[in-house]
Here is the input.
Amino acid sequence: MSNIIEITDFNASELDVYARISEVQLLNRAEPEKGIFIAESPKVIERALDAGCKPISFLVEHKHIEGEAKELIRRCGDIPVYTAAFDVLTPVSYTHLRAHETEADL
Here is the structure.
């Protein structure tokens, strides 16, 4: 069962990790097991899942929830799946599916 959360505003705090926190801020050199990384394509996310990574959340363009992201979302249980229309997500990235995962799960 997935936890789909509709986002209608680019400034929503749920998008902070994807849009407003730098890669350096996501890393935690003192405690690497608490660091996170962002995977930005379905293929990369699939490989990360196959390698045992456990996502914290997904960011998916709305039209892909029942499309190419459906199986990835299903594999991840009840994690938050943030979704929005393309024009809301455009400032984040030109990719349509992102997940952030803990480095400890690598």
In short: The chain has a mean pLDDT of 81. Strands lie at 3-6, 36-39, 55-61, 80-84, 97-102. The chain has five helices and five strands.
